[in-house]
Amino acid sequence: MAILELKNLTKRYKNFTALDNVNLTLEAGRIVGLLGPNGSGKTTMIKLANGLLQPTEGYIAIDGKLPGVETKAIVAYLSDKEALPNWMNVKELIQFYKDFFKDFDEARATEMLQSLNISLTQKLSKMSKGTKEKVRLILTMSRRAKVYFLDEPIAGVDPAARDYILRTIISNYEPNALVLISTHLIADVENVLDEAIFLKYGHIIMHKNVQEVVEETGKSLDEYFREVFAC
Amino acid sequence: MGWDFKKGIPIYSQIIERLELDLLSGKYQLGEKLPSVRDLAMEANVNPNTMQRALSEMERSGLIYSERTSGRFVTLDHEKIDSLRKDLIRKNVDQFFTTLKNLGIKNEEILKAVEDRCTREE
Amino acid sequence: MLGKLIKYDLKSMFRSLTPLFIAFLIVGVLTGFILPSVNDNNPVFMQITTGLLILLLVGLTIAVYVMTMIIIIRRFYTNLLSDEGYLSFTLPVSHFAHFMSKSISAYIATIVSGLVGLVGYVLLFGVFGARSTGLPDLYELFEAVCRTLKQIPDIGVKYIVVFLLLILVGAFQKIVKLYFAMMIGNLSNDHKIFMSFVSWIGISVVESIISQIISYAIGFEESISNAIILGEASGPLTFFICTLIFEIGLSVIYTLSSYLLMKDKLNLA
Fold it and tell me: What is the residue range of A31's domain?
């Protein structure tokens, strides 16, 4: 069974349509890129999958279930917003994740934090932006979830941190999990992707295996993307 | 970080090229155990499925073999490595040959240049 | 899961409230110590200091009340309707659990805040004997209140119970009314905070209009005059019970409406 399914998924607002009759099926064991310019519907799709928005028509299903308490237990979401409570320190954050997520792997989180020399007693409010991003990523990737949604995980982060983040995504790979990365920084992530989805004005205009695209066009995914989305 | 990849050519074939070079350079000896797919993928900074595909191709061509529970190993058949070496030499020669011939340079000139180069080495 | 949500809500709120409570109690105790020994014979500086202390106490009392309300609002807004909402609403808990956790923890904070105020003044008047300053001490105050109440016929435990319930339910109702206003404000895209404010005023207006209509329909004024003139006390009791029912009804309506808005019309930035 597909681990993520979108069927006739539509989200309409008063004066525009964010997603228009989108159909998509994704299997576990893949790292998929959700690519498109700002306003193409990437964030809307992810919000719908997480139950933060309700569809106007159609549905989105995770492991065969509609977004709800059950799916939230198997979905790990790294939002593009700084969603962690600023007043907590690292130790408290770990306890928080442990309290609410059965699939949270504390040992893995501690190990990753240690390897980055991030002290457990450090408060989130006292951290640099880059360190905060790494902490958020570590907490998200330490969950043994079935679906990971990473919304712009490498934007606004220095190159070294970017490398760390991509390496963490690779090392976290599970054959029974799906990783969906939404980004506009394609050149950095294309080697990590199995499949690429091009989203334009709320429509999927392409969904292919990345190697196929490169073979067929003789271009990198990034170059091809620029061609397709040229203004 | 990661291996250098050229644009426009599928990653998995570039991985194969790189691993073949590693075999020839002796980075991995005959019969040696290769790192796991995940470790190689992390080293190269690529998707594990892509790395898996490259390794499967190399299995098919006989350069590596896999033992179900223990992982992947370099072939014990040194003839395979020899023929790989020969292929590499031929490919490189073909390449520089084509470049020079396209400029109208004659075979004798090329041969002499190669010989000179070899003598200088010694 | 609800318990865990409440745990974190309380942790977050009391981080800010506890220092305030402690400051209030300390000033209360200090004032209690100093007050009895102050009279017109003391040097001016003593009298001014004491005056300032009393001013400080009054200020802190207001602060405790206002801060508790502000912190309740802030906790709801920050944790659910701002960026943190992206974490909160992806936790595997139901929207109802989120709502109840906020309501219950806010209620606990309100009760604690009320108790702290009570303790502060008990310490001030009762324990340190403000008797000598001529201010009534707690016991005398209590006696005076009971005497006044006894003058109204048929006063019984019923009244006290209903009155107490009215306070308790009223506190809850005020909290969920705030939440309802914030959920309405959240629907707007650009002016969430302003719209929350406006909604709260709007809801309050509607509430008071309806309560006026009800009290008129039940004939409250009549029953008060009846009670005083004819000695019939059943009227006011009925009125209080009706108000209690009204407050319970409001609580239910505000809770349900907020929950439905949260479930179906959540609008995170």
Answer: 4-228
Phi, psi of A209 (to 5 degrees): -70, 135
The string of pLDDT tens digits covering residues B69-82 is 888 999 888 888 88
Q: Encoding tokens for residue C219?
A: 């004939």
Q: Is the dihedral of CA C239, C240, C244, C247 positive or negative?
A: positive
Select from C114, C133, C151 the last residue of a domain.
C151
What range does the domain containing C204 cover?
154-269
Q: Which residues of C32-65 are buried (b: 16+ CB within 10 A; e: fewer)?
A: beebeebeeeeeeeeeeebeebbebbeebbeebe
Q: In chain A, what residues touch B44 (CB-CB under 8 Å)?
A: 191
Chain A residues with CB inside 8 Å of C91's CB? 72, 100-101
CATH of domain B11-76: 1.10.10.10
CATH number, domain at A108? 3.40.50.300
> Are C89 and A101 inside 8 Å of each other by CB?
no
Give CA–CA dist C207/C199, Å, rounded. 12
How confident is the model over C153-191, as pLDDT tens digits? 556 667 778 888 999 999 999 999 999 999 999 998 888
**DSSP 8-state secondary structure symbol assigned to residue B31:** T
